[in-house]
Amino acid sequence: MPQNGLSYYSLNTFFKEKFGGKTVKLSIDGGFTCPNRDGKISTKGCIFCSEKGSGDFTPGRVMSIAEQIEEQKRRLSQKWPGTMYIAYFQAFTNTYAPVEVLRQRYSQAISQPGIIGLAIATRPDCIDKKIAELLKEFSRKTYVMVELGLQTSNENTAEFINRGYPNSVFENAVKLLSGFGIDTVCHIIIGLPGESHEDMLNSVRYACSLGINGIKLQMLNVLEGTDLGEYYKIHPFDILSLDQYTDIVARLLEYIPEDIVIHRLTGDGPRDLVIEPKWVFDKRLVLNTISKKIRLYNIVQGRLSKQP
Ligand code: SF4
Question: What is the tens place of the pLDDT at every residue in 230-257?
Fold first, then answer.
């Protein structure tokens, strides 16, 4: 629940409630690929996806899982001594491998000192009963959350971005994981080409209606070397300004039930690849502007979530 004067239920608050102290996610490249890139579904990938499979801030697969964790812990333990860590399998599709391979890689991560949980980013079409059972097995030893990329509930936009699955697949994955008692987090992109404010609101309300436990909102980053980047150069579409984005995000909070954890309200892409917008790099400014608007509009998370 919202605490510390915040008008929303932040991930920090959730971690403090759950683990009793500061907890940080360490981004890992677990060496997986993605069915939307390796040809099983498509070879093109989601239109916005970078070469590193949305894992641009992981140390990279040239290092072992243990080394990636160690390297980040070394850096962060100076800043925040006594911190606890969640191993965050971020790059590509982290349930896209045989169960035995998944078991081995997740085990490597949780066997590292200081790791108290797993966060696993994946596609909903890469969740089935066997994988849910495996995650349940891990959840008996450690905390487990699964992050599912929805991006939008508008099926036309989903087709345009080459998401590669219909909404019903997302619904089934959330249902399956929830049935096994696994926390689900939904990733939504704000500012996709052609989307109206109503589309963005619909995506948020849709995901929340399915019983997710957490939500991540992120401004669309147009990256060099992606199909979206190429498209943008030929058909420049409107990119939300900082003012527009922060307005939308602050107002969306009112529609997210108060028990849903807000994992992220902004995120930046790799500096050398972002074509637009450049304002995402100043995360502090983005968050401060959202906070100002929350105060200005008297926003309280969940206030409008029960509206029909
Ligand atoms: S599912 Fe993830 S890794 Fe695969 S193409 Fe889409 S964004 Fe990239």
Answer: 999 999 999 999 999 999 999 999 999 9
- Which one of 33, 46, 120, 151 would you pick to mutate in the ligand 1 pocket, going by the greatest count of ligand atoms within 8 A of its CB? 46
| Per-residue pLDDT, 229 | 97
Give a three-class secondary structure readout of 214-251: EEEEEECCEECCCHHHHHHHHCCCCCCCHHHHHHHHHH
Phi and psi dihedrals of 18, rounded to 5? -80, -40
Kindly give the residue spans of alpha helices, DSSP state H, lying in 80-181.
Answer: 99-110, 129-139, 155-160, 167-179
The helix/strand/coil state of 179 is: helix
CA 190 to CA 248: how far, in whole Å?
9
Q: What is the pTM of this model?
A: 0.95
pLDDT in tens, 189-224: 999 999 999 999 999 999 999 999 999 999 999 999
Q: Nearest Cα to 118, choosing from 23, 253, 12, 256?
A: 23
Helix (H) or strand (E) holding 183: strand 183-190
Q: Which atom of ligand 1 is nearest to the CA of 45?
A: 5
Ligand 1 atom closest to the Cα of residue 53 is 3
Rounded Cα distance between 132 and 128, Å, is 6
Q: Which amino acid is at 220?
A: L
Pairing mode of beta strands 23-28, 183-190: unpaired
